[in-house]
Amino acid sequence: MRLLSRPESAGLARRLTRHQLQVRWLLPAQLTEDAVLLVSELVANAVQHAGAHAFSLRFRRRRGWIRVEVHDPSRALPCLLPPDHRTLTGRGLIVVNHLAGRWGVDLKPHGKSTWFELRVTGGGRS
Questions:
Q1: Do the beta carbons of residue 94 and residue 80 sit within 8 Å?
Q2: Most CB atoms closer than 10 Å: which of 39, 46, 77, 94?
């Protein structure tokens, strides 16, 4: 899904994530809520730092895992910074690093894909 690079797109991305995981894939509520929070962080980074008109959101599922990708046209890599208690920003990737089973960045010919994966335990449909 292609979304405009605006702050309000984070809310739309959260709703799309919740719908995909809870309604379409019937995944557990806690897994869904973790994914919604992680999507919010990756979308915030794309909106704030990519400097692009739009970004895209992609959901993938394979046995035992879900993967969510945020694609943007910037090739600048996000950095996991140490926590700084003097500021209210810059903690998004700390949250991603803590909650995601795995996460990373894949450079593409025209940008990058920042992604996370969460393990699926029981429930849901393919």
A1: yes
A2: 46
Residue 124 lies in a domain: no
**30-64 per-position pLDDT tens digit:** 999 999 999 999 998 888 876 778 899 999 999 99
How many percent of the chain have pLDDT more than 90?
Answer: 57
pTM across the whole model: 0.84
3-state secondary structure the chain: CEEECCCCHHHHHHHHHHHHHHHHCCCCHHHHHHHHHHHHHHHHHHHHHCCCCEEEEEEEEECCEEEEEEEECCCCCCCCCCCCCCCCCCCHHHHHHHHCCEEEEEEECCEEEEEEEEECCCCCCC
Is residue 100 assigned to a domain? yes
